Amino acid sequence: MYSEEKKSRNYGSIFVYCFFCFVLIVEVARFAKPYINLQNLIETEAVVEEGFMAVGNSGNLPCGSSKPSSASVRAHDEQKLSQAVTTDTRTRPPNSYCVKFQSFVTMAKQVKENGGKYESRPFSVGGYNWTLLIYPVIYIPTDSGGYVSIYVRVDNSSLITNPKDVYAEITFLAYKSSTDKYQISQETEAQRFHLFKQQWGLLQFLPIYYFENPAYGYFFEGESVVFGVDINIVKPFENWEVFSNEQNIRDPIFEWRLTKFSTRFLDSYTSDSFSSGGRNWALKVYPNGVGNATGNSLSLYLLSDQSNDKGYVEAKLRVIDQIQSNNFEKKVAAWPNATENGWGFDRFLSFADIKNTSKGFLVNDTLKLEVQILSFSKTDYYSHQSSLNVLTGDST
Ligand SMILES: *[C@@H]1O[C@H](CO)[C@@H](O)[C@H](O)[C@H]1NC(C)=O
Ligand SMILES: *[C@@H]1O[C@H](CO)[C@@H](O)[C@H](O)[C@H]1NC(C)=O
Ligand SMILES: *[C@@H]1O[C@H](CO)[C@@H](O)[C@H](O)[C@H]1NC(C)=O
Ligand SMILES: *[C@@H]1O[C@H](CO)[C@@H](O)[C@H](O)[C@H]1NC(C)=O
Ligand SMILES: *[C@@H]1O[C@H](CO)[C@@H](O)[C@H](O)[C@H]1NC(C)=O
Ligand SMILES: *[C@@H]1O[C@H](CO)[C@@H](O)[C@H](O)[C@H]1NC(C)=O
Q: Where is the signal peptide (predicted)?
């Protein structure tokens, strides 16, 4: 009895233990995954920050072992994830400039006496001159195996005469002959260049060992390597539009007397134009109806004098009761009818109601039509050259 009981309790506790272990493993995996991703991002961020700091501060090369990477530590602490460099491969060649080194190793030796950097000759992108700067070997952090650093610099002569911000999306490339593709590092946000920040790049573009051993696939035609850059100047918008609603309309009501109603023989009649809310309008009536309403209802529309007006209009259309003031009214709240280029109803008021004398619509063969404009939308267009002036108003 006793041993039997103990055995079953043992099975129970083993099960509980196993279940606990399983839950623990699942939870650890769940927490570890985002943490690893986050770490990668912070790492990348540190590279960007550091690259700018080192070059920006000293004004010349961020070379040698003098500077331990304090910037890297700081970036870790801040955990700022706003900027990130993404890496990828692509077949399309650089769109701004390319530098081919017949022998990367020889160049690296030669530039040692030149501040450790190779500077390309100027090339023009977006109305500015730029140069591509390549540091073939940078040991930051000090204990790292070394990196190739790469920067672009905007020529400051035009910025001195006309100080302004230049936004550019930058992608650095290195040709990988083994796959016949380019290895790319791309900043997700456009970089801002200006008089006090003329240079931007990646301190740790690619590890130096990629360019020391042909096995990594970056060499071709012997020891040749190629670096390149895309600079896409991002200009702010120069044209825009503002869509708004005009309410509290000035002179909202217009009345139109349609005399000799029973002898009207044309398909449609249009009133004189009238001004309401600063715009010109007119009423249009089909005494015998139009479309589906032909022969049974009066059709009534509000028209805008602006051809091709596509705005939204709210208005009340009425036929006045000339005896008891029991007016007939329908509200339109719509975009315009494409056929009419106006707002209204084909079946507005039936002939039966118009001819019913007790309703008071037709008196002395005269109909009194009325419109009350409640609101209309408008679109104003602006252009940078004349940003204070409306170019063409009201959705033309
Ligand atoms: C770019 O460089 C060329 C040649 O050095 C020069 O003629 C030109 O004025 C420069 N353009 C700008 C915008 O600085
Ligand atoms: C303009 O660029 C040159 C060359 O990079 C540099 O020597 C000079 O100090 C810069 N001038 C200003 C005002 O930034
Ligand atoms: C637009 O107006 C025409 C009359 O010109 C009419 O036949 C048609 O039904 C109207 N369309 C709409 C959607 O109201
Ligand atoms: C009006 O006529 C059109 C065809 O011309 C038809 O599609 C529509 O359903 C009709 N509307 C009414 C309310 O009878
Ligand atoms: C005329 O209008 C009155 C009041 O609206 C209504 O009672 C009467 O039935 C209508 N007559 C006809 C012939 O429709
Ligand atoms: C209708 O016309 C007659 C004369 O033509 C006029 O005496 C009468 O006042 C008019 N009625 C209305 C409601 O305008």
A: none
